[in-house]
Amino acid sequence: MTAVGVHGFTVYDMIARGASVYGDAPAVIQGERQVSFRDFRRRVDTLAGGLLRLGIGQGDRICVLAQNDPAYLELYGACARQGIIAYPINWRLTAQEVERVVERAAPRMMVVDASTLPVVAGWPERKRAVAHWYQFGEPAGPGFTPFAALYTDAPEPAAVDVAPDAPFAVISTAAVDVVPRGAVLTHANVLTANLTLMACIGVTAADRYLLALPLFHVTALGNALAHMHAGGASVLVSRFDAEEAVRLIDRHRVTHVSDFPPVLSSLLDAAEKLGSGLPSLRHVSGLDAPPTIQRLHERTQARFWTGFGQSETSGFVTLQRVVDKPGAAGKPVPPCQVRLVDDYDREVPVGTLGEIVVRGPLVFQGYFGQPDVTAHTLRNGWHHTGDVGRFERSVRLRHPRRQVGRGHQGRGPAPGRRPVHRPAGGGLRGLEDRPLQATPRGRIRRRPPAHRGGRGGPRGRQDHVGPDGVAATRVEDEPMRIFNEQHEMFRQTLRSFVEKDVMPHVEEWEAAGRIPKSIWPRMGALGLLGVEYDEKYGGAGADIQTTMVLCEEMVRSRSGSLAMAVGVHTDMASPHLYWTGSEALKEKYLPAICRGEKLCAIAVTEPGGGSDVAAIRTRAVREGDHYVLNGSKMFITNGALADLYFVAARVERGEVLRRHEGISMFLVERETPGFAVGRTLDKMGMRASDTAELAFQDMRVPAENLLGREGVGFYEVMRVFQRERLVAGLHAVAMSSRALEDTLAYVRERQAFGGPLSDKQVVRHKLADLATRIEAGRALTYAALLRYQAGEEAVSEISMAKLFTAEMVQKVAYECVQLHGGYGYMREYAIERFARDARLLSIGGGTSEIMKEIIAKALLA
Ligand SMILES: Cc1cc2nc3c(=O)[nH]c(=O)nc-3n(C[C@H](O)[C@H](O)[C@H](O)COP(=O)(O)OP(=O)(O)OC[C@H]3O[C@@H](n4cnc5c(N)ncnc54)[C@H](O)[C@@H]3O)c2cc1C
Q: Of 84, 351, 655, 781, whose Cβ has the fewest other Cβ atoms within 10 Å?
């Protein structure tokens, strides 16, 4: 893709022009410090001299793993000047992922800061191929030199001849791949993006941009440079904090903020708290839910801009103000052509789903170090985004992200909820009026598996596009026609939550043996807990497919522990309250459960036995308006941290032949006198999930906390077990898929006997075998789920799904570790954790032997 309209002009030329045109006006503001355009150029020149002295020059890479810092921007400038390629790294990646990025980038220099130092501790010693190790700020860690040392007065280095279509920066794509792909953006890409933003949004020298998103992100970098190009300033924040952001906006009269949920909602909350109307704000651009955008429009003078874009497209390639056509993504920006095509690259008609393809000077140069993937993505002269959309001229859709968070309550259907009939003109037209068909796998998978890598193509984005302010939506890969577009939107929300708030912490949680409780309110705020519960209790009133998406996406985090903890809270414990609790109890507890303020646990298993539920020995004796419970429980997930426990206890001894009778379920608050958490158990896998022993000694539980009728609790336990086993099936399938994805990526890269492992036929057949088993497990589980959802008898089918998937995941774990060779046995590889986590699935929630007993009983009945 060659440059148009920016002939001979580079990012450094833009900086030099800024110095002469805008001189002493501020270019970068941080706290009390202001760097003028003139000073910015001077600092860039000095830094360029420092890099030159180290022998770093044209075509070399510099990796940066740091939070926002003025020096970070200056480094971008110095790289531009010298023809060096800036290679920023997402600091949310794990150490292992960072390491792989660095291996691919093969930089001459690496720059970190105090916050990322622990990730790279010891690397200067170990990674000799990287010649220079620097750190923003002082003091520097062992093996690192303070970055400030590069700014020493020396004669300005000679100008380097950098072509506009030379690489400027490599930006990680939104997908967090096993090795995240790096989109190579040229000078021309970036400058065209600047001019586009200036033309479309109208950025001028009077504007000030809150540079709060991380500088490794195309949005942050693109907006900072666009404002610089226009003569405006960037107000730099090292890490987003809503209240600080409000103060900065007011103090520096910031006009433009970039948004990805929950930035805007937290900003508006903070503004409300601090009593600010954010009077200076004119533009907010990015992605968000309609209620949040509406709040912005109601409370401020700012306009929300949205569109479709990727790192590969240097930012947005369609753009519009939301007020102009709510729910749509706007028109293609002037320098770009956007089309929707079918599998054969033929344009599809309006209203039909097709892959979004883009052509023009905003399209990246390719993926760094991946010529085959690049050639495939840029085939036939178009960038194939891997995202699916639809042009619709007549239907005015609301922003499909409306289901994000709780703000949608009362305003539209909750995620995955069946369409509700609404009177015409009710404002919510589109999705209800024209329910979308989910698109089957294969039709929408534009990037063939060979190029998809660990986590697939660019995901986690909202994808709307259209030439006429029309709406388009991407539909996620999908093996069966089970999910509709709203489920897929919900999936996007989850995926972005998992990538940002979960994946970077998984290893830390595993080491700590627990998941911090702060994650629960966060999930509650995003509307992820209690999705099927009625809205009057704080739920989302959604369908079971929404729960399926929740289960699948939690597992994609590669934390079986989190998936299990969430599953227990939402689908194994709290259903006892929702299904059998009194109205008063539901009103009292469910809202806090949905908000994530009260964490739930289910306590059925006892030290004396788990499979034989009827053998429960914990006693509950009625005394006036209380039940007095004595006994103990074993292996209780969330046991150490929960606030509410759903406890099975025996109110009657039960006769030998009628042992199932006399069991009841009780809701027990953690603070109840006589309640104690015994040991927290040390486990083989699922190590971040806390599993505890509980003890009850003369624990007095109010009689109103009895769930359902006295003595029929066994049947309730069995009823909730059906759900638990379906969730276990989903977890097993999603864990297996994830492990297979990781393994596919690994065997493609791992070389043995002169070629990648993926070329060996034995390996290929093994992969094919695993994929087949996973799909079989998925089909069985989905089929059981549909039966269950339809209210049909499904105990056998559910048991079969649980049995098959629990055994299947063992096979997948074994083979995936095997395919990783020695690395598969190492703690630093996620596949090792997966193998330990997976082992639980044939034990917990009913062992495989018990599943066989249930199936056999039905067969022989
Ligand atoms: C990490 C973890 C988390 C857990 N979380 C919870 C929780 O949150 N809440 C909760 O209540 N429980 C929980 N459990 C308990 C779990 O459900 C039980 O471990 C499981 O049901 C098996 O019970 P058991 O351990 O007592 O094994 P047992 O019932 O003693 O079984 C031992 C073995 O004998 C086999 N067996 C038993 N009966 C038969 C039979 N009739 N025919 C053939 N084989 C048989 C079993 O299949 C198994 O292989 C958890 C367990 C673990 C390990």
A: 655
